[in-house]
Amino acid sequence: MSQYLVRIREAILQALAHDIVNTAKAAAYSGMLMFFPAVLVLTTLLSQVEEGPTMVGETRAVLEQFLPTDTLDLVQSSVLGHRHHSTQLLLSAATLSLFAGLGVMLSLMEGFRRAYHLPPEDWTFWGRRVRGLLLVPIALVPLATASLFIVFGHQIELWMIDNSGHDLRHIVIFFWRMVRWSVTLVTIVTVLTALYHFGTRRTEHWLWVLPGAIAGTLIWFPATLAYGWYVTSVANYTRLYGSFAAGIATLVWLYLTSFSVLLGAELNGVLYWDRQNRSAQPSSMQLPSRQPARLSR
Predict the structure, then answer these.
(1) How confident is the model over 196-250, as pLDDT tens digits?
(2) Is 159 part of any domain?
(3) Per the structure, how many domains does the chain have?
(4) SS3 at position 235
(5) N or C: which end of the chain has fewer CB within 10 A?
(6) First-to-last C-alpha distance (Å) of the chain
(7) Spatial distance between the Cα atoms of 56 and 267, rounded to a whole number of angstroms
(8) Is 257 a domain residue?
(9) Nearest CA among 32, 29, 59, 63 for reference residue 45
């Protein structure tokens, strides 16, 4: 346990040395451009199905669990409150979301490269962008699936409330909510694992990137809850920023998210080089100085 804490400390120091602050800022700015158009496209598509109005309402309930209050109000007024949009607007929003998502992935991939001490020319210009575009659906599809599970899970929960016996109702609801949030957390860990696995031009087993994914999730989830409480109970962004309060609150939340993802990658990088140095130790005893093993392309 103490060794793992030492590795976490090393990851934090490496993250600061690798300028994680500015890298997270870049990812957050791109995420800001992607977030609202993506929500607009999602809610418009949901409103086209028979259960659309109910699902849009449930989508708001899901967002309420994570987003700051000011951000949720802006989403409600500008996106969820207007469910009929032109095809041209939807295409523009989808295109903007895709390219802004590419910007997010490129910023995160740059952070991953620094975490593993890879050279800047590790990717070609177009190869890096093609990989970034592929990472967008790899990240969004599991997250969308988990969101739908939460949406329909609330409907199942209401059915359980209506049909459970009086004595067992609270127990059933408690365990069902545990299942819903467990699926959400597992999905986030899975998405981060995929990003860490495919986000660098190298080969590493899925299990080796799992510690960083778990650490990133454990950092992001309480940080999101704490920030939501801070915005709701302590800070008054409206007084400071006026009509820009919702945008600032969203940007800070996206920054916390990007920072958590990059910090998990730094932990994976520290653990990777630790394994490489241990495996190279017998041969390095014959050398005047030990050099870390080169990454396999």
Answers:
(1) 999 987 767 889 999 999 999 999 888 888 887 887 777 676 777 776 777 788 8
(2) yes
(3) 1
(4) coil
(5) N
(6) 32
(7) 38
(8) yes
(9) 59
**Tokens at residue 9, please?**
């400390």
DSSP designation for 165: -
The most distant pair of C-alpha atoms in the chain lies apart, rounded to whole Å, by 74
Q: Identify whether the C-beta of residue 265 lies closer than 8 Å to the C-beta of residue 212.
A: yes
Residue 67's Cα: distance from chain center in Å?
13
pLDDT of residue 48: 55
Please indicate, yes or no, if residue 287 is contained in any of the structural domains: no
How many CA atoms within 13 Å lie on the side-chain side of 5?
2
Q: What is the DSSP letter of 121?
A: G
Burial 47-61 (b: 16+ CB within 10 A, else e): beeeeeeebbebbbe
Which domain, by its residues, includes 116? 2-278
Instruction: Give the residue from 230, 199, 170 showing the smallest Cα distance to 112.
Output: 199
pLDDT tens by residue, 129-183: 999 999 988 887 777 666 666 556 666 666 666 666 666 667 777 777 788 778 8
Rounded CA-CA distance 64/61 in Å is 5
